[in-house]
Amino acid sequence: MDTEQSNIPSQDTETKQDGREDAAVDAELAKDIMSRCFHPSRLGPEPWEGYIFSDLEIRIKESTDIYGAVLWPSAMVLCHFLETNQDKYNLADKNVIELGAGTGLVTIVSSLLGAKVTSTDLPDVLGNLRYNVMRNIKDRCKYIPQITELTWGQELDQRFPRATHHFDYILAADVVYAHPYLEELMDTFDHLCQEHTQILWAMRFRLDKENGFVGRFQQRFHLEELYDLPSLSIKLYRAQRKDRTTKDHRGTDV
Ligand SMILES: C[S@@+](CC[C@H](N)C(=O)[O-])C[C@H]1O[C@@H](n2cnc3c(N)ncnc32)[C@H](O)[C@@H]1O
To answer: Ligand 1 centre from 68 Cα, in Å?
Structure first.
């Protein structure tokens, strides 16, 4: 009896073991994701960072003056997921929109995976975004991404009417942080996400104030955690809207 009992792990031991296994999975996955980035061995006239996704080299030019001109690790997390989960999330010929595309890695990888991508961000960011996207997709993609302004919450009905704009996926990497447009961002998700749309959203956790966004998001959307990477403070979520119909700003079903 004594021997038997000593072989059964206590709940404490199991919890510790689970914790160690989770940490090992996190470390392994984070290492794999971060290993996709490399730096040129020789610096040329134009600095760039390299990434390997879909067995292809992707060169990204950053510029340090604005947020959107830097590539954030959440983008790599989302790209890694898309590349390694094509059986479940097949982007081929799918309509995809990316919010806050920044330097364009997620747009580029989605396009390499066969999606028809609408890549969006603030007007100031679009020049560098377009440059990166065009230099990397040339002769490699079935569809050329459309790069266009989308300032969260603005002119959604006019520029992206629900009757004609159906997206299979909304992609977003590191769009929730200390900026004053969190409600507008929520409205943008709400406007673009129709009954069958799936949101894939990589969230970097920084401050409690911004983290409250996740709770508010869950009031409107079903949320599933796909990756949990504490070592990077990043989670990847899949979401779908809770109500089956979408409403316009007057509350009318559309
Ligand atoms: C932290 S960066 C992430 C960029 C990119 N997704 C990545 O992970 O590398 C946040 C992005 O959101 C964009 N952004 C910030 N406020 C915005 C707004 N009000 N409307 C649209 N885009 C916005 C920024 O221009 C920037 O590209």
So the answer is: 5
Among protein residues, the one whose CA lies closest to atom 4 of ligand 1: 102
Mean pLDDT, rounded, for 169-185:
96
pLDDT digits (tens, 9 = 90+) for 184-222: 999 999 999 999 999 999 999 998 778 899 999 999 999
Q: Domain 36-241 - what CATH class?
A: alpha beta
Residue nearest to atom 14 of ligand 1 (CA): 100
pLDDT above 90 covers what percent of the chain?
75
What number does the ligand 1 atom closest to the CA of 202 have?
8
Per DSSP, which regions of the chain are E strands? 37-38, 49-53, 56-60, 95-99, 116-121, 146-149, 169-173, 198-204, 221-229, 234-241
Q: Is 120 in the pocket of ligand 1 (CB under 6 A)?
A: no
